[in-house]
Amino acid sequence: MLEPVLMVDSTHSFETRLAEAKAASGRLRQAIAQVIVGQEAVVEQVMWGLIAGGHVLLEGNPGLGKTLLVRTLSSCLDLRFSRIQFTPDLMPSDVTGTNVLVMDGSGGHGGRFELHRGPIFGQVVLADEINRATPKTQSALLEAMQEHAVTIAGTRHVLEEPFFVLATENPIEMEGTYPLPEAQLDRFLLKIAVPAPSENELTEILTRTTGAPVAAPERVVSRKEVRALQSLCREIAVAEPVLRYAARLVGQSSPDSPTSPPLVRRAVRYGAGVRGAQALVLAAKALAVLEGRAHVSFTDVQKTAAPVLRHRILRSFEGEADGVTPDQIVAELVSAVPTRPEVVERALQGN
Amino acid sequence: MNASPSASEFDGAFAKKARGVELRRLGALALNGALFGLASGLVGAIALWGLGFGAERLACAALGALGALAGGVVGLRERWSDTHLALYLDARLKSDETLTTAVAARAAGDSEPALAHVLEQGNAVLRKHAVTPVGPRVFQRLHWLVPVCALGIAFVSRLPLPPRATPGKLPGIDAVKIQNLAGLERIEALAKLPGRTPEQEERLRALAEQAKKLREALAQGLERREALSELGQMRDEINAERLKLGDPQNRAGLDAAQSALGQKQALRQAQRALGNGDLTQFDEEMKRLANRAESADREAAKDALEQAERAARAKGAQGLADALRDERKLFGERESKAEALRELADAMRDKLSPEALDDLKEFGATGNPEAQRKLAEAMEKALEGLTPEERKRLAERLSKKLDDAQGGARPMTKQELESLAKKLASKDGADALRDELRDLAKQESSDDARREKGLGDADRGDSEAQRGLGVLPMPMPGDGSGAPNDAPGGKDAAKDGAGNHGSGGAGSGGPGSHHDTGTSDHAGSTPEVNGKELRAKAQAALQGGGPMHSATLGRAPARAGETANELGQGSLGSVGQAEVGAVDHADIPEEYREQVGRYFEP
């Protein structure tokens, strides 16, 4: 059941809008929790992606509830849901749709082409096991993700907002898959690692799923509210020192930077780029929205650094050989890059 | 721009908070500066105390004030910006960069709703912590050293100054008091030496007198450096008096004289002694030759001496020519004495012991002065045991020999011998004959030999005196580390015939010499010159670009241990006259001569 929506009314005070946004995110969290056991961090990060207006790549072993999470999310949102199961024989037109000749019924040869829209025209699109399709089909989806539009038979079709793609991929069973190129990975705002549930969580899952079927979650956030949340996210203030910090983090993720930490110089071949820095600030803003703040803090940037940067850091041969994970590299960056100017840090240490 | 009420409130509250932070920061910097200044002042005060400055020490405390002032100035010059202050406050107040964002919003002048909300939140933060003092710690752990340093300066300022160090004594100014400095008596003995000229004799007397005065002064007490200076001066003067046969003026004459002497096999040793500049040894060789029974040898020696004298004089070596002339004159006298001794011994042959007869035989064969002395003593003893009849028979035999010798025996004339033979029958005659025998046994050296020997003694005496004053200028004979006569492979080693090298010295067998007839190997090394003071050194630029004087250069590849010591000999091929004994002739101080000679000899 949808609550009354006030956020869209920009005449309300910012404080009110923030409070409403916080309340809406709380409702969404609560609704998802009715179906998904645990995985709070994953749910939180998916919400960052939704609010920031970016797309999310979920990576985890089979059976961890990735698809269920996306389905539940779409159920909770008043948005059109579509699902594409990526397989090697999936064609781009299976994703985007195609023109179909429709006869006029007169029995003659008269007819017209009619657009049959593909699943990409949904608002919450689940691209399940995206790495199982060929690069050609992957690129059809990725183009839509970047442009929020598809071109079919020379005609450009703008996708309805909000447009939110959640792709899943399986880190095992790599045979017969087509790993996403780095340039295409960069299109995802976040790459969320889905962990295995704890013992308590697993027990709860067993209780819920082996008994009577549970009712589908209610829609708790409307389309307009999602749009209002995304709009509010863009209004969040970021101070110049925080922007600088984000820029330093991203800059020093490259081994070419003279101030990079030793681990980065050793284990990284390419660091994050400009799109990564943009994603970092946007994700931090989304986090601020969820926490009901009108500004971004250093902590927001640090919290969002791992899901934003982990798929944008390309490890060197040495890094891969040594088993250095992207998360370790990001953690090293966060601990090595100072948040404040040196004089301030020194004064703080003196206290 | 009209500021909203919340913006104005934020500006006021933030400025107040920022001022507090700045003041605390300035305080901390001033204390740091004071600490640095006082620590420097303490070090300076200690240094001033060590250097003996009294009143200036307390002024070092001013460095503390200066340091505090400098700290304050640095703090003011490097004031934090509002952003720095906001970042600091956010970190201290745990306000998640609310103040930083608000400050940025105020600087940008934006009136966006989000920024207005941030300003509100900033005001809330500042209101919440309005009374909480926030800022860097003014007093840090190290600051307890400030009063310690200040007290330290005060303490050092009141410390009594250390006593001024007395300047160290200059070396050599200590007075020495020695009753009888050994070595000076050898310089004083110069007074008894004959001079080549009256002027030289006068100089030798003056040197002896100077040594005597020095002995008396030392007995009273004298500065060591004065005594050493005087000894050094005397040594130079002693060396100046020595006959320098190897100097450029005499070299050609010496070479010519050597060449003349070298033509006779019997004179080879004498030639070598002359080449060594050793007139004493040369004189000894001449004594032996004069004592020999074989008249042909004696004549050959006299001829060679005459030729050598002429050759030396022709080459301009007048000093050497005079010495050779004197030697030749003395040769005749020695010859007569030896002849007379042999005549008397022959007359008393049946009264002489077998040992005396052996001495007579050796005296005739080698001219050994020792055999001469022993023979004279044996004859004296035999004379005492003669009865009047025997003395009469001895007189008859002497008369008969005189008839046979046709009066050639000297120094006694034929008349004197006849008179002696007549008197022999009486006791007085026997006493006269005894006196005569003593005279014949005397081993008089030539004046030049005596002088050179005396000067050498004086030189060594001077060195010994210097050593007595605590200086070891040069190695001295008998010091156990390679003295000339006791050195490994030296003359003494040659005498024992068993090759017992180095019995007198501390070395272990030197490179050997031509005197060495032993059987041991010649392994060893040149002993180190034990001297603290340099009295002579090689001067490489004697003749820039030209060959060294009298050196055997460019003859053949040099081989260690072989040099041209004799004309036409050695592995260096035939050598020029001037090159024979080049090393021996070189102007090398006496202390080194033996070592250098041994080094180069095969």
Concise description?
The complex is a heterodimer of chains A (351) and B (602). Chain A has 351 residues and is α/β, with parallel strands linked by helices. Chain A has 15 helices and 11 strands.
* Oligomer designation: heterodimer
Whole-number mean pLDDT of chain B: 72
Tell me the overall shape of chain B: rod-shaped
Q: What's the pLDDT, averaged over the residues of chain A?
A: 85
- In the sheet with the most strands of chain B, the strands line up as 1-2
Q: SS-based structural class of chain A?
A: alpha/beta
Radius of gyration of chain B: 49 Å
What would your notes on this structure say?
The complex is a heterodimer of chains A (351) and B (602). Chain A has helices spanning 14-35, 40-52, 66-76, 92-96, 135-147, 182-185, 199-209, 223-235, 240-251, 262-267, 274-290, 298-309, 317-321, 326-336, 342-349, and strands at 55-59, 81-85, 97-103, 111-117, 124-128, 149-152, 155-158, 164-169, 188-193, 268-270, 314-315. Chain A is an alpha/beta fold and 351 residues long. In chain A, strand 6 (149-152) and strand 7 (155-158) form a beta hairpin. The radius of gyration of chain A is 22 Å and the shape is globular. The model of chain A is unreliable at 1-8 (pLDDT under 50). With 602 residues, chain B is mainly α. Chain B is built from 23 helices and two strands. In chain B, helix 4 (98-108) packs across helix 5 (113-128), helix 12 runs antiparallel to helix 20 (447-468) and helix 18 crosses helix 19 (427-441). The longest helix of chain B is centred in the first third of the chain and has 47 residues, at 5-51. At the A-B interface, helix 1, helix 9 and helix 15 of A face helix 3, helix 4 and helix 5 of B.
